[in-house]
Amino acid sequence: MSSKPVVILGIESSCDDTSAAVIVNGKVLANIIANQKIHEQYGGVVPELASRAHLINILPTVDAALKKSGIAKNEISAIAYTRGPGLMGSLLVGSSFAKAMSLALDVPLIEVNHMQAHILAHFIDNHPKFPFLCLTVSGGHTQLVVVKNYFEMELVGETIDDAAGEAFDKAAKIMNLPYPGGPLIDKFGAAGNKDAFKFSRPNVPAYNFSFSGIKTSFLYFIQEQTPEFIEQNKNDICASIQHTIIICLLNKLIKAAEELGISEIAIAGGVSANSYLRKQLQNLAADKRWQLHIPAFEYCTDNAAMIAITGYHKFLNNEFSAQNLTATAKYNI
Amino acid sequence: MQLKINSINHLAKAAAELLPAIAEKKIIAFYGEMGAGKTTFIKALCKQMGVTEVVSSPTFSIINEYKLAAEKKIYHFDFYRIKNISEAFDMGYEEYFFSNNYCFIEWPEKIEQLLPPQVFKIKIEQKGNERIISWQ
């Protein structure tokens, strides 16, 4: 047993993307996210979201991950899958597939919490020291988590309304930029003046976040301007709204790091691709002497490698799951 | 019926006033532009109904669920990201709409033809700093 490599197949289907990954002794050999290319290869269309898309995608995605890794099905040690949180119909596809495959191959099953996996994605090619403070920011989530070890995590703050990524996308929508507009705000904002316009910032207690008020304040501002003004000042407007959102995130991160006495800081989730956030974090880390950890982008957005790495650590800890465990739309960290 | 709200502090009162009207309806559609305050008003309603969990925007997740007493639930939908009606079928909307649980729906325009006949429609408009909430 000890000399045999630990091969984990990870399956993720909590929201829009179907993904499968193979990792061997913690090293990623394949991390496939269903995309146009898979569809070109296997035929069919690309539905935007929903469980039927997962149904169409899951087999070719798992197959592609196994092929790319060069791992045969009988070499798999265990199958890790996303149990929640997420869209019920989507979760059911991944969990049913994982259960069926585990029965067929007679290998153990490992359930994984998607939000824990976002955080443990750091251990794919890095090793933050415990305890560390992780800011998880994506289109659907904004959380501050104290990570005590691989399995013990404490949620210390979260959004009380919109997620940070959603704030970016909606600000872009208000400016009539295409959805999802977060990356466009990043792009235009890079060339703008962040202090050109001021937007109200929320005052939320503790380590919680709120982005709904910023959205409304931004909406009022845009409603008062002419389309010409918005076009001429696009870069400054993007830089200013981006600065407002990012500062709200960082202020809570700083507050938590100071009050909880943690200098090992990590970021996770799709919004960590934002270049302004990365730059500000790097400045802060230098200033406050933080050890800063930012995972590779492919492990920030929803992916199965993070599910597999979580499964790997659970495997080492002998944490397996029963077949009768059901998927759950709500799943606290 | 129409309610005017000019401060976030009036939200709880407005939610309490609306509650008896929606109690029998179960499926409630909230119409309003982005930033009109749909999510904020649903938060206030959920609070009045006894939800203690965080009520947040389901724009990304499409559906959030909140626990009510006696195994009952509130499903909070946001169809903003839906591009095609078939996506609502694909996610199994019937399971939720006909579950006899409360369904609070943002961006119902996107799935108008799927709304059951008993749907209760609420419109939220922003006029300056005031919000006007109206229903049939």
Largest β-sheet summary of chain B? 7 strands, mixed
Q: Spatial order of the strands in the main sheet of chain A?
A: 3-2-1-4-5
User: How many domains make up the coordinates of chain A?
Assistant: 2
Strand order of the largest sheet of chain B: 1-7-6-2-5-4-3
- Could you tell me how far the N terminus lies from the C terminus of chain B, measured between alpha carbons in angstroms? 6 Å
The CATH class of chain B turns out to be: Alpha Beta
Can you put this structure into words, describing what you see?
The complex is a heterodimer of chains A (333) and B (136). By secondary structure, chain A is an alpha/beta fold. Chain A has two domains: 7-120 and 300-316, ATPase, nucleotide binding domain (Nucleotidyltransferase, domain 5, 2-Layer Sandwich); 129-294, Nucleotidyltransferase, domain 5 (2-Layer Sandwich), CATH 3.30.420.40. Chain A is built from eleven helices and ten strands. In chain A, helix 5 crosses helix 6. The two termini of chain A are 31 Å apart. Chain B is of the alpha/beta class and 136 residues long. Chain B has a single domain (2-135), classed as P-loop containing nucleotide triphosphate hydrolases (Rossmann fold), CATH 3.40.50.300. Chain B contains four helices and seven strands; from the N terminus they run E-H-E-H-E-E-H-H-E-E-E. Chain B has helices at residues 11-22, 38-48, 85-90, 93-97, and strands spanning 2-5, 27-31, 63-67, 73-78, 102-106, 120-127, 130-135. In chain B, a hairpin with a 2-residue loop joins strand 6 (120-127) and strand 7. The mean pLDDT of chain B is 90. The interface between A and B is medium-sized, with 38 and 25 residues.
